[in-house]
Structure formats: structure tokens, C-alpha cells
Amino acid sequence: MPQLPLSNPHPIDAPAVLAWYDSHARDLPWRVSPADRKAGLRPDPYRVWLSEVMLQQTTVAAVKAYFLRFTGLWPRVEDLAAAPLDSVLREWAGLGYYARARNLHACAQAVVREHGGVFPASSAALQSLPGIGAYTGAAIAAICFDEPVAVLDGNLDRVLARYHALDVPVREAKEQLRAALQASVPERAGDFAQAMMDLGATICAPRSATCLLCPLQPACVAARDGTPLLYPVKPEKAEKPVRKGHAFVMTDAAGDVYLQSRPPKGLLAGMTEVPGSDWSAELGTPAYPREAQWHHRGQVVHVFTHFRLELEVWSAIVVPDGLDGGWWAEPEALKGEALPTLFRKVLAQAGLES
DNA sequence: AACCCGGGGCG
DNA sequence: CGCCCAGGGTT
Question: How large is the average pLDDT for residues A117-124?
Fold first, then answer.
């Protein structure tokens, strides 16, 4: 079933986009400015890769501090590859989507072991590495090597949906958008990719569109119609189920907290937690991990991508014996643990700073 | 193709 | 509170 052609036959005006970028590019820690790029300076693929992985489903503002921390600790891909996975997970704590951190570490090791510490120079080869998919492979290849490839991310989904006044969810026309964008990629492919993302982040933003300043004028259909905020059309979304459970915060007489590791697969894989019950639709009776004077410290609510979690928080002072698999952490050491935000909320609810 | 996987910031 | 964000892996 062939889909309808896009309503806007005009290719993107790449020279106009690049001219806009030359004077309006965002200054980002991992970026080589268009002026420096023209002077012959090349981006470091390691830094570009690291930034792109961190930026997957994560805002620029949230990434900056993590990027500087990572590049300070591990300036080269060899350094990251040689680091223990635990330390990478610890440094990643708070960024979310923790599979990214595991793939990041595996990718660094693959680059060192299988490519002599040099990132492959093509989009296709990059995509065979862990954690590098269609978007990230194209982005690295364009930015670092000026491969003339379409770089299509969430920003571009929105910009192109408006450009074409696309009246179906982007998912249903993804390949047509990609082909149309591909036909517009100029010689300065890396700057073009970054320019389009900057456009989406500043001018063609989710809740505002400053069309008068946009270099995609006058070809943009939504701008011509004065309806940019109608796009992209959103698909129907499913309702979020609620799950409930208990979390148990145990301290010993010295105030140390009992922690353990989550299983290596599944939700929050390999991250640190306090013991707890299963999470299910109905709240069960708390099965305390051991006998003690348990106190109910209230409830913590946390919203994941696909469900809402309500955890009852319990605390007790216990004698540290008969517990397997975990460890006792001093309260001052909690900041350095690989604790996801959920369990930092739980500890805070129990009166502990982390 | 559909589903799973966090967290922060914004209005 | 709902929406959005420089998506990838799995099934």
C-alpha cells in the first residue's frame, strides 16, 4: 500500500539553513563551532559519540554537567573502556535509561578492542556498535565525517511535520520524511544536521514557533498557513496503569543503610535499591525482610514511561545479621551509590539524605 | 511494528 | 499535571 506523497515538494533550502546556523549556532561543550569547522578543525568522534548517547531522550540542559564530568574522568575512549562498569553506572545515575550506560561501556570496549581505539567513519559501520542506532550512527557520521546522510531525531520529526503539514503521526510517514530530508543534505552535512536540530530546539520548538525568524520560510506549509502548533499530529496514547508495593529502609545502630543490587536485566537493571516487595496492581501485606519495629514513613509516587508506581515506605533499626547479597552503606556514602531517583525519593521519605 | 526503558524541565 | 526531549534494543 503506497502512502500518499508529502504535500510539500520543495527540498529544504540548505544554504539558507547553513547561513542561519553560521550566526545562530548554539555553543555546546561537545560542538565545534561553524567558524572553527570552516577553519579545518574536526570534532573528536569520542566526544561526539558520548554526547549523542547522553542526548538520547534527554535534554541538552540535563546532559551538560554529565558530559563534562565524564570527559574529565575519561578523556579518551581507552580510558572509558578501561573503567569498571560499576563506576560508569555510578556516574550515570540520575540520567535515566540505564541500558545506555551499559551499552556505552560495551561500545567503548568494542571500539578499543575491534577498531584499535578509532571510531568507524561511516554511518553503517557505527550502527553495528552497541547503543548506536539509526539516529546516532547518522549523527556521528555527519558531524564528524560530513557523510551526506539524513539525521532524523525528535526535533526533526517536528520541524519536518510542520514543513510538510503532515496530517498523520510521524511514525506513519517516517521513511518519506527521511527520503525528502536526504535529498536536501548539502556538502556541509555535519553543520546541516546540527543546524536543523538547533532550529527545532530554538525556533521551531514544541510549544512555540517563531516562523518570522525561520530560514525554512517561505516553503514551510504550516508557517504559510499559520498553523505550526497543530503539528506533529500525536498518535493515541495508552493509559498508564498503577502499580503498588512496599520499600524497606533498614539502618543499623550506627545509622548505616542496607542496600542491594537490582537484577542485571529489566527495569533499572544493575542499579542500587533498598529491599522491597513486588510491584502489582493491588497492594499486599508488607513482608518485612526481618523482625524489627517497623514504622510506616508514608508514600512515594514515581512515574515511569509506562506505569505509575506508588511505594509505601517503611523503616526500622535492625541488628545487621542474617542478610545476604547486599551491603551496608554509610549515609555520607549514599551520594556515590548508583541509586536511581526512585530510591533516592524512598530514602528521603525515610529521613535520609542521599 | 509494538513494546520496554527514566528523569528533568516546562507551561 | 501532561508533554517533551539529539532513541535503541528486544520480541
Answer: 96
